[in-house]
Design goal:
628 residues; alpha+beta; Threonyl-tRNA Synthetase, Chain A, domain 2; BirA Bifunctional Protein, domain 2; five-stranded mixed sheet; globular
Length: 628
């Protein structure tokens, strides 16, 4: 079952051709698995938008599927493709579908001695009287809303990619299943191109390079998803912070610092608690209060209810910086002459991500945002949004990430998720549309993707191997100022409500570093490189000259070391290449005599010799210009 069999017609029509193909190929893979292991029990099998995978199927099986089984599964899939089975749709009642599931026919090749338990459970969630759609190809029947390609013969360019574990419905209290991932393309040529990109992505994997280059570390005794920034990674992070701080100074921001926790009442008022309760760490409650509640026989469930309602107070590891910045704005009387007020912070926030969702630096439980909140008059919104967008463009341009598209995330008027006056939403959305149109790049509107308090613009960046990453974001918010009753005194001497703009060019520093590692394959531009130069004396006789060069470069602000090991020069060069040092300066008798250095670049190779002063001037200029 790739979905609940109940998608709306619009949702079905919105499925792209490639999603339809992969959706169909998921059924081909399930059919193959059943032919090999007839007692397999299937849950979900959707197409997914993933850089490597195109679909998956969750399956319960007494056999542990491993990569050694992939060839066997693919061989059976090839047979099913050659059989060119048609995908046929049947509409049945809920009771008829339940009867088929209880006979084992749904999610199977024939009736079995056991029921299709996951299908029964899913059907029990569907109200009586609703029509259910079933798709079949050959002997395989399954609950599915579709759509599919006409026949299995369309699924030519496929591959089984990976297997992992997953809990049924994402709940750790439910059965643990095997999630088998695959992908599918129109033909084998496109598949081969994709697999080539996958191999390149493996070489660039930030988890692999992060370990090799000693950028960051995760330790189970510290906790999953909690990053330990190592000195090399901390250097890159500091350079990024210095870069953005310079831009903030130019644009008139004030940098602030706020605590890592806040009272629950603060987040109740903002809406973050309990709105995002499932993705937050548990509240921190005073020990004496907990002991008192325990004496009263208060259960965990009742405590949770009291925390939500406000009967019990506590503190929360902050999930967002915005409520703290709101309180800074509210701490002083403001006039329209003071606006806009631009507050910026490298603020660390905390999210309770499920362990199965954690992934290196790109999905963590503690991360630092290059966060800012601007408080302005309504007349200033357009100019301030454009200023934020210019900042994001400056960041991406400096890092060579110029291939991007823009996504304008709007509210869904039919959803109860969004708070505030619809008229304010209309104004906020229109201001973002105008701003997006001014960028001169393609942009799309995506209803239902806005934050609960306001619409946003996201920059979706394509890296050098074609993968997309959502990075910088700008949001317009009329609602949090309303919730916190913020005001400023206008030219008419009356109080007025400011508009709030949220913006984060990097987003999360952790995630941004992960993306940068993979974008540059660890070959950071010199201004970001943890080690910008390494001096390599060809023998110990030239160590003093190497030390003199090192001292001179350090005085100029260059991050430099000297390799005084007793290794041959070839081994020193190889080590520096592996460490991805920007420049290697080889020195021997000739260089010492002429006060020169022989230069090697980590990617461009041998650059010849030049005077030390010339090299020093060149590398300092390269660093200061933040050249790529």
């Amino acid at each position: 079952m790739s979905d609940n069999g109940r998608k709306t017609l619009d949702e079905r029509n919105q499925m792209s051709d490639i999603e339809r193909l992969r959706h169909s190929c998921a059924h081909v893979m399930a059919t193959a698995i059943l032919r090999i292991w007839p007692n397999a029990q299937f849950a979900y099998g959707p197409p997914i938008d993933h850089a490597v995978f195109g679909f998956y199927y969750d399956v319960e099986l007494d056999h542990s599927i491993t990569p050694d089984d992939f060839e066997k599964i693919e061989a059976e899939m090839t047979k099913i493709v050659k059989e060119n089975q048609p995908f046929e749709k049947m509409e049945v009642s809920r009771d008829e579908a339940l009867a088929l599931a209880k006979s084992g026919r749904l999610g199977g090749l024939a009736e079995r001695d056991v029921d299709s338990k996951f299908k029964v459970d899913l059907l029990n969630d569907i109200p009586e009287g609703e029509a259910i759609s079933i798709f079949k190809n050959g002997d395989f029947w399954d609950l599915c809303a579709g759509p599919h390609v006409p026949r299995t013969g369309n699924c030519k360019g496929f591959k089984v990619m990976s297997v992992a574990s997953a809990f049924y419905k994402g709940d750790a209290n439910n059965a643990q299943l095997q999630r088998v991932y695959g992908t599918c393309f129109k033909n084998k040529t496109e598949l081969a191109e994709h697999l080539e990109k996958v191999e390149e992505a493996k070489k660039r994997d930030h988890r692999k390079l992060g370990k090799e280059l000693k950028l960051f570390h995760f330790d189970e005794t510290v906790g999953q998803g909690l990053v330990l920034w190592l000195p090399n990674g901390a250097t890159i992070r500091q350079e990024l912070q210095n870069f953005i701080s310079e831009e903030l100074d130019r644009q008139g921001y004030s940098q602030v610092f706020t605590p890592h926790i806040g009272k629950l009442d603060l987040y109740r008022k903002s809406g973050h608690f309990p709105y995002y309760e499932d993705s937050q760490f548990s509240p921190i409650v005073d020990r004496a209060e907990l002991e008192k509640l325990a004496e009263e026989g208060c259960s965990c469930g009742e405590l949770s209810n009291r925390l939500r309602s406000g009967e019990v107070d506590g503190f929360l590891l902050k999930p967002m910086n915005c409520p703290h910045h709101i309180k800074i704005f509210a701490s002083d009387h403001r006039s329209y002459r003071d606006l806009p007020v631009r507050l910026a912070e490298f603020g660390t926030v905390y999210r309770w991500e499920q362990s199965g969702e954690l992934g290196g630096m790109t999905r963590v439980r503690s991360f630092t945002q290059d966060d800012a909140h601007l408080f302005c008059t309504e007349d200033q919104v357009e100019a301030e949004v454009l200023g934020c967008l210019d900042l994001v463009k400056k960041v991406l341009g400096t890092l060579g990430m110029t291939d991007y598209r823009v996504r304008v995330s709007l509210r869904d008027p039919d959803s109860s998720k969004y708070v505030g006056d619809p008229a304010n939403w209309d104004r906020a959305e229109e201001s973002l549309r105008k701003a997006a149109a001014s960028l001169g790049v393609p942009f799309t509107e995506e209803p239902g993707e806005a934050a609960f308090y306001g619409p946003k613009i996201d920059f979706v960046v394509k890296d050098v191997i074609g993968r997309e990453w959502q990075l910088g974001t700008v949001q317009v918010d009329y609602n949090l100022p309303e919730r916190f009753e913020l005001s400023y005194i206008g030219a008419d001497n009356k109080p007025h409500r400011p508009v709030m703009i949220h913006r984060a060019p990097f987003g999360s520093m952790e995630r941004f570093l992960g993306v940068l590692i993979e974008h540059f394959a660890g070959h950071f531009p010199t201004w970001l490189a943890p080690e910008q130069a390494r001096i390599l004396p060809i023998s110990e006789k030239y160590n003093d000259y190497a030390k003199a060069i090192e001292s001179k470069l350090k005085d100029a602000g260059v991050r430099v070391t000297s390799d005084m090991a007793g290794e041959k020069i070839g081994a020193k060069i190889r080590l520096a290449q592996l460490d991805k040092v920007s420049y290697m300066l080889v020195v021997g008798a000739k260089e010492e005599e002429t006060q020169q250095v022989s230069i090697r670049h980590r990617q461009r190779g041998d650059l010849g010799s030049c005077g030390l002063e010339q090299f020093l001037g060149d590398i300092v200029a390269e660093i200061q210009s933040r050249a790529l």
